[in-house]
Amino acid sequence: MKILLTGANGYIGMRLLPQLLEMGHQIVCAVRDEARLSVDKEIKDQIEIVEIDFLEEPKENSIPKDIDAAYFLIHSMSSSTQDFDNMEAKTANNFNKLVSQTNINQVVYLSGIVNDKNLSKHLQSRKNVEDILYQGNYNLTVLRAGIIVGSGSSSFEIIRDLCEKLPVMITPKWVLTKTQPIAIRDVITFLTEVLGNEKTYNDSFDIAGPNVLTYKEMLHKYAEVRGFKNWIWTVPVMTPKLSSYWLYFVTSTSYKLALNLVDSMKIEVVAKDTRLQDLLNIQPHTYKEAIDLAFKKIEQNLVVSSWKDSMISGRFLENLEKHIQVPKYGVLKDHKKIKVKNPDIVLERIWSIGGETGWYYGNWLWKIRGFMDKLFGGVGLRRGRTHPNKIFAGDSLDFWRVLLAEKKSKRLLLFAEMKLPGEAWLEFKIDENNVLHQTATFRPRGLRGRLYWYSIVPFHYFIFGGMIKNIAKQ
């Protein structure tokens, strides 16, 4: 079967892609920027990639006409606190226009459980998209999921941050809202099993795990699985805005996502039936089993995708290629170089930079910079990295975005996503003479940008000097 996979570089899409290939399907991945499709060359060689921005009017012949089915996995909740619902409606309408030019038979849409009468803006938007897709000239299968638990999912990472960092919590009253979490492994199973199944055509199904829990119970059960205790007290005085700031500063989530999540957490998200799991004979994992599975992936360095790698987890919304050419004029630079004896070892150190490894010198200073960035509404250092020693273009790396990661040419190029009065690049490159070049480039925005650069020159002297020496040490 030939399948169009939209949102191919998203958290769900990255996990669904290898499963579909393993099942023998031909996959056409629709992404806004081909350079950002963070998969190994082995997978890229098996797929067709098309660049499409579903917020723009679709162009004719932009996808193959012989598409049999498609997955609609496009969401915009993290990109805006105001008009994400309009953006999601626009993408759904443009999707319908695009696939109307093909021979498509089925579309599978991953939505949210919408059984409460008073829906949040987020869930109302998902329901609106569902209604738009039902107008398409194809058979629609809608899977309505609750909280998705898996390594790298926003829900799991938020719960993990809260529990690991705060043994004692004063929480808003929405932690008493009921929800029905589902393991990411089960979501992928449902998504693949409904493909081509005529019994699921033109119908919407709830998918969820077997446990109905409050958010407070989810936090307690996470602690149980991890082998420690936590104490949680709820207070009625914490407003949605204060709750959003609380999530933003304590966890790795962005403020936009935190605000939209808090709005949704006031609504019960509980499945109303088990029709689909009975039809497909699927027995979903329990919440505790979902946490166990997540940590097994983390411990084995097998985290396939993370919500943090989404472009909308940072400030950087344009295509990567716009920033790959580092400017030469009107910029300020800190360039250091050093001869290395073993370039392969040095290259591995470069590819392991950030996250748990740190920045090889003055990590406490990097942490202070990350905290300051959070205070001013930036991403901070909490995003870390998905894998300890693998990097792809488009990945988040603490408060940087990976622009280029070319081991063959021994070059890593990062673009800053922290709050700055300008634009910043950090490049590592080993040349043909085994000389390591470390270059920080800053394009200031006006006088404020130049004052910022010169104010941190003394810190650069120690931090960048110590960093290159520790990376190159024998």
Gist of the model:
Helices cover 36% and strands 21% of the residues.
Summary tags:
474 residues, alpha/beta, 7-stranded parallel β-sheet, 16 helices, 19 strands, membrane, NAD(P)-dependent_oxidoreduct, transmembrane helix, transmembrane
Structural features, described:
With 474 residues, the protein is an alpha/beta fold. 36% of the residues lie in helices and 21% in strands. It has a 7-stranded parallel beta sheet, sandwiched between helices. Helix 8 (240-250) packs across helix 9. It is globular and about 65 Å long. The chain crosses the membrane at residues 451-472. Residues 7-147 form the NAD(P)-binding domain. It comes from Maribacter confluentis. InterPro entries: DUF2867, NAD(P)-bd_dom, NAD(P)-bd_dom_sf, NAD(P)-dependent_oxidoreduct. Keywords: Membrane, Transmembrane, Transmembrane helix.
